[in-house]
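re the bet — no i am not wrong, look at it urself. input seq straight from the record:
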Amino acid sequence: MITLGYCQDEQLVHLLLEWALFSGEVRIQDVSHALSLLGSSSESNSEIAFAFLSTEFERIVSKFAKGPMYGICMMLLCRGGSSGSSKCARIDAFFETHDCRNGKKRILQAKEGLVLKSERLQRDRPLVKEWAEKRQ
């Protein structure tokens, strides 16, 4: 179930999200496994996951808001990507008009991960490029 997050086909990613969150075939405690690599497997999957959260927010709330998986779902659907502060701004803008309920801490964790990843990329990209060029 975890490896499904590596899928690079947009239609299949949407099917994965729909299946994991709403089909009833995935136990609630296992939803995080299906979503765990989705946001971090690629930039496009990260964007698809966040767009899915944006369009399906009310369905997610109605199914998960009363339990501990709500915050985990929010975090997993918000994380990923390399845009750091710009994605954090989009997350903030979204949750200005949508009640994050008991997911606030997890959303903050997702945003922290975005900033740290962006900083690492800025720091390490020139070093990796230099290393690769020396080996060509």
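see?? The chain has one domain: 2-134. told u. also The radius of gyration is 16 Å. so pay up
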